[in-house]
Design brief:
heterodimer, A: about 60 residues, mainly alpha, B: about 800 residues, alpha+beta, seven-stranded mixed sheet, 26 helices, 28 strands, elongated
Chain lengths: ~60, ~800
């Protein structure tokens, strides 16, 4: 049953790591703008328009 | 159907979607309404940024308005305040760009580096309409950057009062979020660690009891001393000032819970209330977060400084140089170009002044001034450049003097909330019950039970649900208002709205619709002649022509030949073989007609004078119903800066003649509100322009009515979009219902408290009962308030 001490210790440690990760995210401003990234991820890497002839130059 | 569709596509500008003029600008098969739009398209397509048009149809903004001069951005003294960060290589600046409105905007502005390689990075915050740009300051000056943005149609708004919101706002926000995270973390862990105790431990597992107890206590430490710190300090400050607010029983509950848990765990006599304590603080902080809801894209604190430019062109020794506005002195000679705003009271020295005071008075008809006349600050010059001599510094001008009034320096009295009033009685009653039950058991000579019941009462009656009922109800109502384009500064405004008994309206721009004009024709005109006039006016970009076309609302039949426009004077052209001329009397070469109230468009067809269209202001949609509905329960007043010419048409709306006041200066309006308040009225002021700013600030509730919430809103408590103007009675009903919901939820949480007190006064409150009652009451309150608020909103036709 002594295992329980260790298991609880590990679980709290794990939870603490997540808490610290959240602190880091909040400190670096990742929660400041929760709207724009949802649009930004929908943009394609390179233009989808008709003018695609020059796109070869962009692929280095 | 398809025919109509193709027709509409063809008549719209490819860039901004506005109607095309008679001879559109054409480039690469695309049609544009003006050179500006075509220019933007040219820049974008030459930099391979065509996708801008792929993400949305017509994403651009019209480029017909001229871009302002930005020389002042070369002055280091001016730009120092604007820049976020600067070193030898790079500069970081945040611009507020009102034109940001769709995903194409984000895409384009984040691809700025393709237009100018000196731009390293640009990031958009869409809701705040801000862009943070990092650029190489050796290759690109700040002015060039701003000009680049203006050229592609995203002109940054740079004003004296920084519209870019400071990061400090976020810091306090972040701190609260962090506290919630810590409290939530501890709440979850203590709950897990408390379960074994609640379900009962077998003899073998008793060894864990102490271990769990100590861990629970350890989790309580950050919750009490970090997350709950604000409640202690707030309760203490309020006590010192002799105020009993809800924070007092909350702080008392937290403290007692912590001390009793610690005592029980130290003495191994029980499990303590660790999970209830953590849960309490967690829910309280969530409630506080709900209450702090802010609108990122709106500012409620704007004053004249956000209307005025950052710098003005100073004339000294025959040289022009930009001067920061706060350095402008009496006697300075300044140059105001077309479309610039006059920042201080001044005397006209040179040029023809034609000033648009619509910011100040809401009056759209330009005012002409002659040499030597005093020109008041706030007007926008429409004609060519003029020279002025400043006679008063900016802060002492006729318009801006208003802000020196004590109304603006003194803080507005905090709005009295129901929970504030109720908590006073609640705290007293709570203490009485706690001491009473403690004394009862002492009397029965059971001191341990006396202490147990005394602390238990303070724990169980800790007004968590009570503290949450207001924020959750009001936050729900706030979001309902938000959907109806009524934006409130904070949640307390809703309760104030429910108390209003007097409504004061400004006239121009508030109850009249600045977008739509009503025309009446004086003279005789046939249907076909109207058709001709409409087809001719369609070619012009002048506001009056556009409104006239809108008002006649006939589809295009004829094409104008020999079309000519004399800017600001009139237009002429040949339609269906007839020579038609529209414009001012001077343009048509006829005798001026005196005393016309409103702007007139005179008509001459085939050299025969027919008469004139007279534009008059149109009331906003639903104004009549609104006034009738409000007038039943409240007093209505009208304060207008205008002349009296609308008095007659307003008499049906404002039954009492004494309540209509014309020719009111901003100071008059402020004083009028004060008089009403001294008579014991709760005053709501509807206004729009700068001239209402004082009255808006003085009134119990100032509501700015505007058609573009992102442009100009004076300091106020709420911003109402013009399209929702007719819903005001619904909003007021909803506010009253919200107060009712708060009362009901207070009742519910009191019932929970009474149930808990039943156990507490007997000294038999177990941690398990507390652990069930607290979350149960909280969840009941949260769900009840949000559901009730929505049901009422449906009843009031707001959802």
């Amino acid at each position: 049953m002594n295992m329980i001490y260790m298991l609880i210790g590990i679980s709290i440690l794990l939870a603490l790591i997540f808490l610290l990760a959240f602190f880091w995210a909040s400190k670096t401003g990742q929660n400041d703008d929760t709207y724009t990234p949802s649009i930004r991820m929908l943009f394609d890497e390179e233009a989808t328009g008709k003018v695609d002839q020059k796109s070869d130059e962009d692929h280095l | 159907m398809s025919k109509i569709k193709t027709l509409t596509v063809e008549t719209r500008c490819y860039h901004c979607g506005e109607d095309l003029p008679f001879s559109p600008y054409i480039l690469a098969d695309k049609q544009f309404c003006c050179l500006g739009c075509q220019g933007v398209y040219q820049i974008l397509s030459s930099h391979n940024l065509d996708s801008y048009y792929a993400y949305n149809d017509v994403p651009g903004q019209t480029q017909k308005t001229q871009t302002p001069r930005l020389e002042y951005l070369d002055e280091p003294t001016i730009t120092a305040d604007l820049i976020d960060y600067q070193d030898d290589e790079t500069t970081v600046i945040t611009f507020y760009i009102p034109a940001i409105h769709c995903s194409s905007c984000i895409w384009l502005l984040e691809n700025l580096y393709k237009i100018n390689p000196a731009i390293i990075q640009s990031r958009i915050d869409f809701l705040k309409k801000q862009v943070v740009i990092t650029f190489k300051n050796k290759a690109l000056s700040l002015r060039e950057l701003a000009e680049t943005l203006s050229r592609i149609g995203y002109e940054p708004l740079i004003s004296l009062q920084d519209v870019v919101k400071k990061q400090q706002y976020d810091v306090s926000d972040r701190q609260l979020i962090r506290k919630i995270a810590v409290a939530g973390f501890c709440f979850g862990n203590t709950m897990l660690l408390s379960f074994p105790e609640y379900f009962g431990l077998s003899g073998l597992e008793q060894q864990f009891k102490d271990f769990f107890g100590w861990l629970n206590l350890a989790f309580c430490l950050p919750v009490v001393f970090y997350c709950g710190r604000d409640y202690f300090s707030s309760a203490w400050i309020n006590l010192k000032n002799g105020v009993l607010n809800l924070d007092f029983p909350l702080a008392l509950g937290i403290a007692v819970m912590f001390l009793r848990s610690a005592a029980e765990i130290f003495s191994r006599s029980g499990a303590g209330f660790a999970d209830t304590l953590c849960g309490l603080v967690f829910f309280l902080l969530v409630g506080r977060w709900m209450q702090k809801h802010t609108y990122h894209h709106l500012s409620f604190e704007r004053d004249y400084r956000s209307y005025f430019p950052v710098a003005v062109t100073l004339l000294k020794d025959n040289k022009e140089r930009p001067l920061p506005l706060n350095k402008l002195k009496q006697g300075d000679r300044i140059l105001i170009r077309s479309n610039e705003i006059i920042p201080a009271d001044a005397i006209l020295l040179n040029g023809t002044a034609k000033l648009d005071f619509s910011f100040v008075t809401g009056e759209s008809i330009p005012v002409e001034k002659v040499l030597g006349e005093v020109v008041y600050a706030g007007g926008r010059q429409l004609d060519g450049a003029i020279e002025l001599e400043v006679i008063k510094p900016v802060s002492q001008s006729y318009l801006t003097r208003l802000w020196n009034n004590e109304t603006f320096t003194a803080d507005k009295d905090r709005i009295k909330t129901f929970s504030g009033t109720a908590s006073k009685y609640f705290s007293v009653a709570l203490l009485a019950v706690a001491i009473g039950s403690g004394l009862f058991w002492l009397f029965k000579e059971d001191p341990s039970k006396a202490l147990a019941s005394f602390t238990a009462v303070l724990i169980i009656a800790c007004p968590c649900a009570l503290a949450l009922s207001s924020p959750f109800t009001l936050a729900a109502v706030l979001s309902i208002f938000d959907k109806n384009k009524f934006y409130l500064k904070n949640t307390a405004v809703i309760e104030e709205l429910a108390r209003i008994d007097t409504f004061v309206f400004d006239k121009t721009g508030t109850i009249t619709n600045p977008e739509a004009a009503n025309f009446s024709f004086n003279g005789k005109i046939t249907a076909i002649q109207k058709q001709w006039i409409s087809d001719l006016a369609r070619n012009s970009g002048h506001p009056l022509s556009r409104e006239l076309v809108k008002w006649i609302s006939l589809p295009k039949q004829f094409t104008a030949l020999d079309y000519q426009e004399k800017v600001g004077r009139g237009i002429s052209g040949r339609i269906d073989g007839q020579l038609i001329r529209l414009g001012s009397t001077a343009f048509l070469g006829i005798e001026p007609i005196p005393q016309l109230q409103g702007s007139a468009v005179h008509v001459m067809i085939a050299d025969r004078y027919l008469g004139y269209f007279l534009s008059s202001q149109q009331w906003r949609n639903g104004f009549k119903d609104l006034v009738l509905s409000l007038g039943r329960h409240a007093d209505l007043h009208l304060l207008s800066g205008d002349q009296e010419h609308d008095r007659k048409s307003l008499i049906p709306f404002f039954p009492s003649i004494q309540h209509m006041h014309f020719r009111q200066s901003p100071q008059n309006k402020l004083d009028y509100i004060k008089t009403l308040q001294n008579k014991g009225h709760k005053v709501l002021m509807f206004g729009d322009g700068l001239n209402d700013a004082g009255a808006l600030k003085q009134s119990d509730l100032g509501v700015a009515v505007t058609d573009n919430i992102n442009n100009f809103t004076p300091g106020c408590d709420a911003i109402l979009d013009g399209s929702s103007f007719s819903r005001i009675p619904n909003f007021i009903r909803q506010a009253k219902d919200a107060v009712r919901v708060i009362h009901m939820s207070f009742g519910i949480s009191l019932a929970y408290n009474a149930l808990g007190l039943f156990f507490a006064v007997q000294g038999t409150l177990s941690p398990l009962i507390a652990a069930i009652l607290m979350p149960a009451s909280t969840i009941t309150i949260i769900s009840f308030t949000s559901i009730a608020a929505r049901l009422y909103a449906r009843k009031n036709h707001l959802l």
